[in-house]
């Protein structure tokens, strides 16, 4: 079958179209015809080899981390899905490869596609929706009335996280560029900081939670806007020992992660707040919760542009260069 693969870790030139074997379908697997898949920053990091120490993929590797598609076959122990079902998913971290015509996904990682969405809209959701859910609901347990800052509120994660935080009853602030201020307000942010003209660390204060999607200086400045006892959860900062434990890494790698995050954890402690790293995981039940919110009109996907499957490499370059105006970049088979 056709797929976009890498033979070795590298830059954009490492990605190419090729033929790969058909997926092996296990007893609890669902074989899905991929109708659309979305592009995520995680794709670039995997391609570059940024996670090869903790996620040792076997090369050649098919890229792609989420999808919407149609069930074409089910394993003998599958009970939740049938041939013809329209589904969406973020496959398990060890079984990625959605930039392909077909993929086998464990039934626990799969959910029915939200009714009323196009295939491209559904494909834009799994990874960013799970990231938002696991940060705001699972880790932070956001409660009504809490103050939550979400960076890059017009980005892939940001557009969903702003809506979810609002749905949870939080007072939501976000940072965006000038042109994206109207969208951020439309998505539900009460406070929108234009980072081109304002310094968020100078205008925000007393926040319970920061969801950091940018890392670097933004992460460090975020510590200053939290109340004592507040928390920053980052998907772009250095990984920590908790992340290593979640992956089941050996003690040596746990210590490495501890060292990588030592500086930001020390700074957080000085501010009387805490730092945590999030690497989202596949979860079909959480996707079912997201689907209910989508179908109730509480969350809507934001899609910037849809590329044909043959232009997957161009779609990745478009997203990596930051050319998307808002939301997600999607690759569609048809």
From TrEMBL:
<dbReference type="InterPro" id="IPR050700">
    <property type="entry name" value="YIM1/Zinc_Alcohol_DH_Fams"/>
</dbReference>
<feature type="domain" description="Enoyl reductase (ER)">
    <location>
        <begin position="10"/>
        <end position="331"/>
    </location>
</feature>
<dbReference type="InterPro" id="IPR002364">
    <property type="entry name" value="Quin_OxRdtase/zeta-crystal_CS"/>
</dbReference>
<dbReference type="InterPro" id="IPR036291">
    <property type="entry name" value="NAD(P)-bd_dom_sf"/>
</dbReference>
<dbReference type="Pfam" id="PF13602">
    <property type="entry name" value="ADH_zinc_N_2"/>
</dbReference>
<protein>
    <submittedName>
        <fullName>NADP-dependent oxidoreductase</fullName>
    </submittedName>
</protein>
<dbReference type="InterPro" id="IPR013154">
    <property type="entry name" value="ADH-like_N"/>
</dbReference>
<dbReference type="InterPro" id="IPR020843">
    <property type="entry name" value="ER"/>
</dbReference>
<dbReference type="InterPro" id="IPR011032">
    <property type="entry name" value="GroES-like_sf"/>
</dbReference>
<dbReference type="Pfam" id="PF08240">
    <property type="entry name" value="ADH_N"/>
</dbReference>
<keyword id="KW-0560">Oxidoreductase</keyword>
């Amino acid at each position: 079958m056709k797929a976009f693969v890498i033979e070795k870790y590298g830059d954009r030139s490492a990605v190419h179209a090729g033929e790969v074997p058909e997926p092996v379908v296990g007893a609890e697997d669902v074989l899905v015809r991929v109708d659309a898949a979305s592009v995520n920053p995680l794709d670039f990091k995997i391609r570059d080899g940024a996670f090869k120490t903790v996620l040792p993929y076997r090369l050649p590797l098919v890229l792609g981390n989420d999808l919407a598609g149609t069930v074409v076959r089910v394993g003998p122990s599958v009970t939740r899905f049938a041939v013809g079902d329209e589904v969406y998913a973020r496959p398990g971290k060890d079984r990625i490869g959605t930039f392909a015509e077909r993929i086998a996904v464990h039934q626990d990682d799969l959910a029915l596609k939200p009714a009323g969405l196009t295939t491209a809209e559904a494909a834009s959701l799994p990874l960013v929706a799970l990231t938002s859910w696991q940060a705001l609901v699972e880790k932070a347990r956001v409660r009504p009335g809490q103050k939550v800052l979400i960076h890059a509120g017009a980005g892939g994660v940001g557009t969903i996280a702003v809506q979810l935080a609002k749905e949870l009853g939080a007072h939501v602030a976000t940072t965006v560029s000038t042109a994206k201020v109207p969208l951020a307000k439309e998505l539900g942010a009460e406070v929108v900081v234009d980072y081109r003209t304002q310094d968020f660390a100078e205008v925000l204060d007393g926040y319970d939670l920061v969801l950091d999607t940018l890392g670097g200086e933004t992460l460090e400045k975020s510590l200053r806007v939290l109340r004592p006892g507040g928390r920053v959860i980052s998907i772009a900062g250095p990984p920590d020992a908790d992340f290593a434990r979640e992956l089941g890494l050996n003690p040596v790698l746990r210590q490495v992660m501890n060292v990588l995050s030592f500086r930001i954890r020390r700074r957080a402690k000085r501010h009387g707040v805490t730092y945590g790293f999030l690497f989202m995981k596949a979860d079909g039940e959480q996707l079912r919760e997201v689907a209910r919110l989508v179908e109730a009109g509480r969350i809507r996907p934001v899609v910037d542009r849809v590329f044909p499957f043959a232009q997957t490499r161009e779609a990745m370059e478009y997203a990596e260069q930051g050319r998307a105006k808002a939301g997600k970049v999607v690759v569609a088979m048809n």
